Automatic annotation (TrEMBL):
GO terms for molecular function: aminopeptidase activity. Residues 508-529 are annotated as: Disordered. The keyword Hydrolase applies. SUPFAM superfamilies: Metalloproteases ('zincins'), catalytic domain. It holds the Pfam family Peptidase_M61. InterPro entries: Peptidase_M4/M1_CTD_sf (IPR027268), Peptidase_M61_catalytic (IPR007963). Residues 515-525 have a biased composition (Acidic residues). It comes from the Bacteria. This is M61 glycyl aminopeptidase family protein. Keywords: Aminopeptidase, Hydrolase, Protease, Signal. The keyword Protease applies. Residues 281-352 form the Peptidase M61 catalytic domain. Residues 1-18 form the signal peptide.
Length: 554
């Protein structure tokens, strides 16, 4: 073993390291006490390049989480002459040219046996229990910079009697820039792995836990139908694909569904009492990520990535609903209901007219900003499709042209242009204009209103213009204080008789979510007498709310 010198120097600039030599081997080993998992140990072996130098990035930030490396225990590097820190997550390793290096660390169990994933999980952090684990690559895998994906090898050792599945069991795709972090790993005592044959190859469905309202067979059928529909659209698909399903902790409302696509796999966690209907469009969304954005040229790097979510998430939502309908896994009524949820949320969003740069900056910290790229992008996709079909083109044709223009020649280093530049170039080559609507509705944030005939003959968009939703007081401050605060003297609550400082006993609504809702306030009047006030939350501004209906219902 070569001696190691660990330096706490924070390097301000890192010259590029030569590509490491030969295979980079990742080995994951389950550590047990009796029959129970206590930890997972990861070991990565590789050789330095000709310059005797490599840079390793530990798991850091992903999915709204940060400082993931703090969960790694006993981080060690052997075979190096020195290891210097470049920020808390990066290691600059130097040694003899082609020296063998081993990086290792472990993760400890953080859940109890039989306990589902946290209901609010965003797949950011690994879930490890004595009887199984569920991990996405960004929460576990270190990346050795300048590694060729075809040189990556993976193996794992599971406890006796366990089953598991990961997309790392097959070679990484050569037509994307995916690394080993674009992976999903599910294993445990109660995991089942089922195989479904597809025209392009094999679909594996790995699941654990019990779900009250659907069977394994029904879930498998929905997944296989969606996968076949989307492969037909694109005319291709991965030879191997993995879908994983696991329960979260039980929720009373049943509405806890999280999905994420990574490489040739996607993961779903949901409450045990979730309906399968609620999952189907999410399944279509996540499988669409097999192509978008990774096979469409990707997004801009670093902090600029979220500025492209209107495309990677919004367009994906548009196609998820379309393919779910066309494949028959949802019916027309569900399609209408899902679109109306989006159109209402967009109309009521406080960020509806916020420029994209501000939305992007707030994406991970503001729930309303987090949802807007999905809403705005899907509505823009519908608008573009309607415009281009009137010109004899279509959004479908544009997406296929973008895929073809983004193909990576095996062995060639990708040099993608910025997202907007690539989209505009493909649009012009395809014979359509894109930039004007993107600048207007995404970059500048102008509101999008869809024409009535946007969805063709089967569905009609109906517009209703109403006063903007405005309670006329500050609901957050009022809840926290226990009395009403921020009452606007020119607002609807004031006109109904509400004043600053009145006791907040109870606030109810009819639940319509718009300015035609009826708000009921229970407070105290003069001398502490009970007082009930009712009003509509009608603000001064006007908002045009749109909704989708079946054309035969108009």
């Amino acid at each position: 073993m070569t001696g190691l010198v660990l330096s706490a120097l924070w390097l301000m600039a890192l010259p590029a390291a030569a590509q490491v030599t030969g295979p980079v081997t990742y080995r994951l080993r389950a550590v047990t006490a009796g029959e129970n998992l206590t930890a997972l140990e990861l070991r990565v072996d590789f050789r330095l390049g000709a310059d005797g130098r490599a840079v390793v990035d530990l798991p850091s930030s992903w999915g709204g989480g940060s400082h993931i490396y703090e969960r790694l225990k006993d981080v060690r590097v052997t075979g190096a002459q020195s290891v210097e820190l470049s920020g808390p997550e990066s290691r600059v390793i130097t040694g003899r040219p082609k020296a063998k290096i081993t990086l290792s660390y472990h993760l400890e169990v953080n859940r109890t046996a039989g306990q589902g994933a946290p209901a609010d999980t965003n797949f950011t952090y690994p879930v490890l229990a004595p009887d199984g684990f569920y991990i996405t690559g960004p929460g576990l895998m270190p990346l050795i910079r300048d590694t060729d994906p075809k040189d990556i090898r993976f193996s794992w050792t599971l406890p006796q009697g366990w089953q598991g599945a990961t997309n790392l069991e097959h070679a990484l795709s050569t037509d994307t820039t995916d690394g080993v972090d674009q992976s999903i790993l599910l294993a445990g005592r109660n995991v089942t792995v089922r195989h479904v044959a597809l025209p392009t190859g094999e679909l594996r469905i790995a699941a654990t836990g019990h779900f009250d309202r659907f069977s394994a067979e029904a879930f498998d059928t929905a997944v296989a139908t969606i996968v076949a529909t989307e492969q037909t659209f694109w005319g291709d698909g991965p030879e191997h694909f993995l879908v994983t399903l696991a329960p979260t902790e039980r929720r009373v409302d049943g509405r806890s569904i999280r999905g994420t696509g990574l490489g040739d796999a996607f993961a779903i966690v949901t409450a045990p009492n979730t309906d399968l209907t609620d999952l189907k469009t999410i399944l279509a969304h996540e499988y669409f990520h097999t192509w978008s954005p990774v096979r469409l040229g990707g997004l801009d790097a670093g902090d600029a990535e979220s500025a492209g979510y209107w495309f990677s998430e919004g367009f994906t939502d548009f196609y998820a609903r379309r393919f779910a309908l066309e494949s028959g896994v949802i019916d027309g009524d569900s399609f209408v209901a899902q679109w109306n949820d989006v159109l209402l949320a967009y109309a009521l969003s406080p960020h509806r007219t916020t420029p994209n740069a501000i939305v992007s900056e707030a994406f991970w910290n503001d729930p309303a900003a987090h949802q807007l790229p999905y809403q705005r992008g899907a509505i823009l996709a519908a608008l573009l499709d309607r415009r281009w079909r009137a010109q004899g083109r279509s959004l479908d044709g544009f997406m296929l042209a973008l895929r073809d223009a983004s193909r990576i020649t095996p062995g060639a280093a990708p040099t993608p242009a910025p997202l907007l530049e690539r989209l505009n170039k493909v649009a012009l080559d395809y014979g359509v204009e894109l930039d004007d609507l993107v600048q207007k509705h995404v970059i500048n944030g102008d509101e999008i209103l869809l024409p009535a005939e946007t969805f063709g003959d089967r569905f009609t968009v109906v517009s209703t213009c109403l006063p903007a939703y405005d309670l006329g007081y500050d609901p957050a401050r009022s809840r926290a204080a226990g009395y009403f605060a921020g009452v606007d003297p020119d607002g609807p609550a004031y006109r109904a008789g509400l004043r600053d400082g009145m006791k907040r006993i109870r606030v109810d609504s009819a639940g319509t979510g718009d300015s035609q809702d009826e708000i009921t306030v229970e407070t105290e009047g003069d001398g502490g007498a009970p007082l009930t006030l009712r009003f509509k939350p009608e603000g001064k501004a006007t908002v045009c709310r749109q909704r989708l209906v079946r054309s035969d219902d108009t």
